[in-house]
């Protein structure tokens, strides 16, 4: 598998595209195709880490894909290296022209550069495709401008995928991603409430930089430690209004008809369809009855999905 590398470790010369590539959706894949077509150079993706807005404006930028999650997808698409360019205040002050010269040409040895038509970069986002054209016009460097991809719903973008996931519209998010949305976490000890009700749950510790769908109860597939064996599951994402409304939002996963000690293991979760919103029940018995119904509904949905 390709690894995450710094600019100093790059295999040169490169055919390169720069951007966040968050979600690796159809628009990103058009860019990647143009990179991979250049057989004479190492096909490379370069991304800033952390996100510039985190450094400049202290914004929290949750990712559809964390860098290590992108690796197997990029490898399947023909990319040989994912370069993380450390973004800090000093880099933010670099002019667009110096970024092209110092980073793209001198450090990354770019011989082919692919960018989206709306690509902006450099100090105060002053650089655009015309800046790259001017900087490379007398050099032996190809420049490929990839048009913005749209469908019936509008522009295909990472923000649109986030909006769909926030609304729990996993079906349409899947269409734009062209792959299932998933996340993973380490199983940590919880309060054991699910087990006392007869529905043991795995409590997941999720990387705080990962974007999660809207709160609710979902039918989901789970896999243990990157296994290919999918297990039918019910996932609860959010608070626990019946047990303790003051508890923080959490991710709990119940493996249907499985009794496995998961503590310390990694669980990958692929939510398929939202079953219901969170409800405050009158008592524990009502909650237990609803969980039974959730299991039955999840199995029906997952059986249909698996056909």
Automatic annotation (TrEMBL):
Pathway in which this enzyme or protein is active: Cofactor biosynthesis; FAD biosynthesis; FAD from FMN: step 1/1; Cofactor biosynthesis; FMN biosynthesis; FMN from riboflavin (ATP route): step 1/1
Gene3D superfamilies in the record: HUPs (3.40.50.620), Riboflavin kinase-like (2.40.30.30)
Entry GO MF terms: ATP binding; FMN adenylyltransferase activity; riboflavin kinase activity
Record keyword DNA-binding present: no
Entry EC no(s): 2.7.1.26, 2.7.7.2
GO biological process: FAD biosynthetic process; FMN biosynthetic process; riboflavin biosynthetic process
Reaction catalysed by this enzyme: FMN + ATP + H(+) = FAD + diphosphate; riboflavin + ATP = FMN + ADP + H(+)
Kinase keyword on record: yes
Keywords: ATP-binding, FAD, Flavoprotein, FMN, Kinase, Multifunctional enzyme, Nucleotide-binding, Nucleotidyltransferase, Transferase
InterPro entries documented for this protein: FAD_synthase, Riboflavin_kinase, Riboflavin_kinase_bac, Riboflavin_kinase_bac/euk, Riboflavin_kinase_dom_sf, Rossmann-like_a/b/a_fold
Domain called Riboflavin kinase: residue spans: 176-303
Lineage top rank: taxon: Bacteria
One Pfam family of this chain: FAD_syn
Family named by the database record: Belongs to the ribF family.
Protein's UniProt name: Riboflavin biosynthesis protein
Species this protein is from: Prochlorococcus marinus subsp. pastoris (strain CCMP1986 / NIES-2087 / MED4)
